[in-house]
Amino acid sequence: MATMLTVLGGSAASVGTGQGCSGYLVSTETCNVVLDLGPDTLLELRKHTDFRALGAVVLSHLHVDHMLDIVALRFSLAYNPIEPDRRTPLWVPPGGLEFFDKVGEVFSSDFEPDDFFAKVFEINEYDPDGSLQLGDLVVSFAPTVHFVPCWAIRVHPMGDGGDLLYTADTGPSADLRDFAHGSRIVIAEASTPTAERDIMPFVSRGHLTAVEAAELARNAGAAILTLTHMFEENDPTIALAEAATVFDGEIVHAQPGARITWS
What we know:
By secondary structure, this protein is an alpha/beta fold.
């Protein structure tokens, strides 16, 4: 059975001139799961699948560049002329229910705050120590080092095709080596330019360099590294070249519509 990754957006905290922030669609023949849905990613999602029929949306953390289009998706699900036939499963990190209740208060003149998102989403907090069965995909988590609580996500398709590892946002001191080991595809953030690597202490830095992302993919034994979460102003081609000095496999620049299929 084939599994496909489709990039919905790969910019860092500021949307780019040609793409939005973090968002990734993982598809099998029977299931579509979205990992993060940052600004301007819903538009790209609609080009590739029916947003009303998603198996789930899973959020790594609650920074705006990873979840803002959840609000846009909420309005699309509520008011599009073609109504969904069920609520969309939305899995949020610990603390996410309270967070979305507060967001709902901003828009909920016609709803109780906790009903604003619950009208269209079946919203639950995941247990980072557990796993989720989402159709024919199993999703598990590992903590990262970031400026708010954040979790890397590993997606295991049923069968022997190989796993996908998404670092979400993380600094280099996160212990992701064992969690990533054996992944076939690694989506790794690379938003710290090498020249700025030492501005913040290693243990507290909340983002990777391209070389650190490549080292993670190499140590995992991955076949493909997808570099993401990069500002266009920092010239991602530099990051791609730096990663290639460390990682011998295929390197993909995360841009909207980029696809990787494996089976």
